[in-house]
Amino acid sequence: MKMTTGQTLEIVYQEKATKFTQRIIKIIGAGRIRATCQSTVSPRVFLNSDVLAWQPMVQPKRYA
User: Fold this and answer.
1) 54 pairs with which residues across the strands?
2) Rounded to an integer, what distance in angstroms lies between the CA atom of residue 5 and that of residue 28?
3) pTM of this structure
4) Predicted confidence (pLDDT) per residue in 50-60, tens digit
């Protein structure tokens, strides 16, 4: 599976040597992962090598 622009993901990311974070982000650029953090609504840049795990966020089905 590939990360694509506009996709919303949940990631586990390693900051520095010992700090781990879990974030929900929306991809806005390729290369280094440029994204908007959904909890702080701020732009972030993540290194591909520091993303330990990721999965696409599934939108809940809406029923009328």
Assistant:
1) 11
2) 5
3) 0.73
4) 889 999 987 76
